[in-house]
Write a structure and sequence with these properties.
alpha/beta, two-stranded parallel sheet, 4 helices, elongated
């Protein structure tokens, strides 16, 4: 019988190298998912923005929000919805300014009672403008147009509507449309 040789570290490494030489490791042809994850994140942002923009059909009337009637046939595009009810101004589903009987409290206006700029609405619309401009910078086919739709209670005082429009103008939202109920020629509401 042959004498057993004590395995040294050099001997072990030599045996491992010999075995590796006979069985090369397969090359990795895996799928790099990081670019796909970036693409999915961008698509997710656009999908959220698409679903977040409300349509006229999603508006529910209540005692606090009665929408006037119109015979206009203009279709609404994608825009930021602003609801003015008897008790609050709601931007994109988020209550921004509380109202008392449809009027803005002077403490929420720049300059108090005679002021026209509604400070909380100004801040929220500025935030939305910045977000929409950031999205527009990523997608030149969808530029920031400053579109907004006002859904106002038919009993809203003119002063409140004027203050909202003035505040929107200060935040670069200049394409304003009013949402109304449709009615046909016979005066029937839909």
């Amino acid at each position: 019988m042959a004498e057993e040789e004590r395995a040294s570290m050099a001997t072990v490494k030599r045996i491992i190298r010999r075995k590796k030489k006979h069985h090369p490791e397969p090359e990795g042809h895996g799928l790099n998912i990081y670019p796909m994850m970036d693409m999915m994140t961008i698509l997710l942002v656009f999908m959220v923005m698409q679903f977040a923009s409300s349509s006229a059909a999603a508006i529910t009337q209540s005692d606090e929000l009665l929408i006037p009637y119109s015979t206009s046939r203009v279709e609404m595009g994608e825009s930021v919805p602003i609801q003015i009810s008897r008790r609050a101004i709601v931007v994109d589903g988020k209550e921004v300014v509380p109202l008392r009987n449809g009027q803005v409290d002077p403490s929420h206006k720049q300059g108090g009672g005679p002021g026209f700029l509604i400070t909380p609405l100004f801040r929220e619309m500025g935030r939305i403008k910045d977000l929409k401009k950031l999205i527009a910078a990523q997608n030149p086919r969808r530029p920031f147009l400053g579109d907004v739709q006002i859904i106002a209670d038919e009993r809203t005082p003119f002063r409140t509507i004027a203050e909202v429009i003035y505040t929107l103008g200060q935040t670069e939202f200049k394409n304003i449309r009013f949402v109304t109920n449709k009615s046909d020629e016979l005066g029937q509401a839909h």
